[in-house]
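Progress note, sequence design subtask.
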């Protein structure tokens, strides 16, 4: 009998086994590889992309996050609740703003889209760092976790003071802490009540005139002619070009004729003999028109370029870029108008507050920020946001010199309502013509004040159609300074 050979069979079987093993190995590696890729993507998404993803207004999955988390609170630095979500017995959620329109543009709204901190803080508000076991427990019970809270740099008392002081006027007030960049207050009017914005929505968006929209945050998006506040930069350019600037003299007769226009001093004042300091302190337009005629246009443009005209501002809020358009072939009318802050130059109140803060902070601009830290709903800190330098806008000597000039505005010029206080103030007023109708002007003040004990704050005020800076804007800034230094 022929012995059945098992050899080939066993060979076949071994081959099959090897093949199967190989398939098994390939599949295993494939799975491991896919798993690694997924985990990698998951980690990448968690670490790098999820913030963009949750914050994107186009992301319909925001709702998915909101399905699992009750939106966290937004608070002032001094412990006031500025926004919270109230959960009804039936599980319905209502976003509630206890101070209504007072924080409208700073905090924002959360229906029909989002704005302000509600928008750029969305990620934190929809994440929960509630304790792990609590989250597991809620997961099993199909209950929501409590989202993290945002604690802002906003000071309730300063915001209230600025809000009341601006009154029924249109305009904006910005209060910054120069050595950190903290936004202490930010008011914009006209405003809205975020509690009722949903009901008002149709009428709000039916107003297609963006300049008049109550949704515009005038502090960061309002573009205004800077008027005489711009003389801060004209002065700096003159100092940079003329090391003997102490020798400057000019006799103001109340007006100066240009090619096609005549520049006159505010209220047709005649200032007489002046040097650079008194020209600045009295805000003499004719002297500054004279100064402008001698400036190097290219260097002036470069200065403005270096202090963020035409540039993005380093802030989280939506903003408009300030503009400065002087060219080498600009005519004398354009040059002199630009030197006194008129012409084509436009600036936002926030930008002006940043320039002022840099002067108060030895030339260094700190990035303005409004989220101080986030914490879980029990108050355990999740993330701290720290002050960061944007860079040096002015040398320390330049900042000190501009500070001296701005002190003279208070001690003997248009800011005299701020003299003789418990704090040392410095600043610049402005009355900016904004249309061909020269009888109307926006009132500006930008400046800072300090005491040994409390440190320094910078305040920028614009009152639309307010008239003169010294009459309409300085008293508002004074109320903010008074409040801060008596807190
Ligand atoms: Zn004058």
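Output:
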């Amino acid at each position: 009998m022929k012995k059945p050979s098992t050899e080939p069979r066993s060979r076949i079987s071994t081959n099959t086994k090897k093949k199967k093993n190989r398939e098994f190995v390939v599949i295993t590696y494939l799975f491991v590889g896919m798993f690694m890729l997924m985990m990698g993507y998951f980690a990448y998404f968690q670490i790098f992309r999820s913030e963009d993803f949750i914050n994107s207004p186009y992301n319909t999955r925001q709702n998915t996050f909101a399905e699992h988390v009750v939106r966290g609170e937004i608070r002032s630095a001094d412990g006031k609740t500025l926004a919270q979500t109230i959960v009804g017995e039936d599980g319905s959620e209502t976003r509630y703003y206890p101070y209504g329109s007072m924080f409208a543009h700073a905090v924002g709204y959360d229906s029909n889209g989002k704005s302000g901190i509600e928008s750029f803080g969305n990620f934190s508000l929809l994440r929960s760092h509630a304790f792990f076991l609590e989250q597991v427990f809620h997961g099993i019970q199909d209950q929501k976790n409590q989202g993290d809270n945002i604690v802002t740099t906003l000071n309730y008392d300063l915001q209230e003071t600025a809000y009341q002081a601006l009154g029924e006027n249109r305009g904006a007030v910005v209060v910054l802490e120069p050595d950190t960049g903290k936004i202490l207050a930010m008011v914009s009017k006209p405003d809205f009540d975020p509690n009722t914005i949903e009901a008002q929505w149709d009428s709000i968006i039916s107003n297609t005139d963006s300049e008049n929209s109550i949704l515009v945050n005038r502090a960061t998006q309002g573009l205004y002619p800077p008027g005489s506040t711009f003389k801060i930069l004209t002065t700096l350019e003159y100092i940079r070009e003329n090391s003997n600037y102490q020798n400057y003299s000019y006799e103001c007769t109340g007006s100066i004729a240009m090619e096609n226009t005549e520049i006159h001093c505010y209220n047709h004042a005649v200032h007489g003999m002046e040097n650079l300091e008194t020209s600045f302190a009295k805000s003499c337009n004719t002297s500054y028109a004279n100064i402008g005629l001698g400036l190097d246009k290219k260097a002036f443009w470069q200065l403005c370029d270096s202090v963020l005209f035409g540039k993005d501002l380093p802030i989280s809020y939506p903003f408009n870029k300030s503009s400065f358009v002087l060219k080498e072939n600009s005519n004398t009318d354009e040059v002199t108008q630009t030197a006194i802050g008129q012409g084509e130059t436009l600036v936002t109140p926030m930008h002006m507050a940043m320039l002022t803060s840099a002067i108060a902070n030895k030339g260094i601009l700190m990035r303005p920020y409004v989220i101080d830290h986030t914490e879980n709903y029990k108050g355990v800190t999740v993330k701290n946001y720290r002050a960061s330098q944007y860079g040096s806008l002015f040398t320390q000597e330049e900042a000190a010199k501009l500070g001296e000039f701005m002190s003279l505005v208070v001690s003997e010029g248009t800011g005299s309502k701020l003299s003789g206080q418990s704090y040392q103030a410095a600043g610049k007023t402005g009355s900016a013509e904004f249309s061909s109708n020269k009888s109307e002007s926006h009132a500006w003040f930008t400046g800072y004040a300090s005491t040994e004990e409390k440190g320094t704050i910078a305040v920028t005020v614009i009152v639309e159609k307010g008239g003169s800076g010294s009459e309409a804007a300085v008293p508002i800034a004074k109320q903010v300074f008074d409040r801060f230094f008596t807190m």
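Residues 363 and 395 are 5 Å apart (CA to CA). Work on this subtask will continue into the next period as scheduled.
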